Amino acid sequence: MGGTGSTRNERDSRVPARAGALVAMRATHIFGAGDIRVIDVPDPAIQASTDAVVRVSRACVCGSDLHPYHSLAPTTEGVSIGHEFIGVVEEIGADVTTVTPGDFVIAPFAVSCGVCEFCRTGLQTSCVDGGFWNDGQLGTTGGQAEAVRVPLADGTLVAVPGVTASTDETLLASLLTLSDVYGTGWHAAIRGGVTPGSTVTVIGDGAVGLLAVLSARQLGAARIVLMGRHELRTDLGREFGATDVVAARGPEGIAAVRELTAGGSSIVLEAVGHLPAYEQAVGIVRPGGVISRVGVPQYEEAPVGFGSLFGHNITLTGGPAPVRAYIERLLPAVLDGSVQPGRVFDRTVSLSDTPTAYKAMDARQALKVMVRP
Question: Counting Cβ atoms within 10 Å, is residue 246 exposed (0-12), middle (13-18) or buried (19+)?
Fold first, then answer.
C-alpha cells in the first residue's frame, strides 16, 4: 500500500483481509451500451494522506446508471461504474481523523472535503476540491466493486456506530439508500418546499420517486399524487404515503392531475430526467408553484419561457442532491426502523452477477437491485 498511516497489516482485528489483497480485486466496468462486465482490477491503495480504503459490504445499481448503459460508446478498456456503497474502513491515510479501520461507513455519491464554502453550507455536490465516483480527474473508481479508495475521507464518509457488515439485511438495505436515493428523494422535497399541508405531485415510480413520496409524507404533505404506471411500484408508493396514483401520461395524465389538485399541483417533484417528464411537470404545476427536478436531465433544452414558467411565476429548482448534508438528519429513523427506505430493493445479486442486475432494471423486471460483493 502506498501512503502512510494505518495499514491493512495494522488494521482493526474486526476487518478480515480480502483474498488477493494488494494484488487484484473484482469490479464492475462498462464497455459500451448494454455491455457490463465484472473484471479484475488493481486493488485500491492509499494515494494521499486524506484517503481511506473501504471494503464494500453492499452496493447497488442506480437508475442513472442506466443512462450510460443505453448510450455509452464502445471502449476497449472499459470504465468503472456505480456510485452507491456502504462498507467497512480497511485503511486510512495519516491525516484522516473522523474514521478508523473497522468503522462501518456510508459513502455518499459525491466526494467532498467538508470544509470549503460550499460544504459548510450543505452543498457538498459543489465542493471545490471534490467530485464524484468514476471521475478521471479526481482518480475515483466505482462502487460496484470489492473495495474503493475514498479521497477526502473526513469530509465524505459517515461512520455508523454499532453497525457491522453482518448487520441485519433489512437495515443494511436502508443504510445503503442514504448513499443516494433516499437523500435524493429528500432533496427533491426540501428544494420543492414541502411543508405540512402541501399538495405534491411526484413524477416517476422508480426508487427516487418512491422515496420522494416517503420524504414528502415525512415533511407533512397532505396530498401526494404519484404518477407511475407499474402497479407493484405504485402500491409501495401508497404504503410510503401517496394518496393518489395517476397511471396516464401526456395530456391525459396532466388533465387527471389537474382535476385531482383543483387546477394544478403547487409542488411537483420530477424524478425521471427525460424531457417528457419535465413537460409533464410544466403541465401540472399550479401558477406560483415549484418544479423540483432530481432526475438527471438527459436533455439541454426545455421550456422555460413566458408561456411555460415565466408567465406563471413558476420556480424551477433541484439538482444533484448533497446527500452528505442530509445523512445525520435521516439516519436516526433508519436505525430505529421507524422508516424503511430499503424497501425499494426488490432483488439482490452477487457482484459477479451485476450484469444481470442491469438487464433486470432496464427491462423493468426489478425496481432497484442490491449488489453483495
Answer: buried
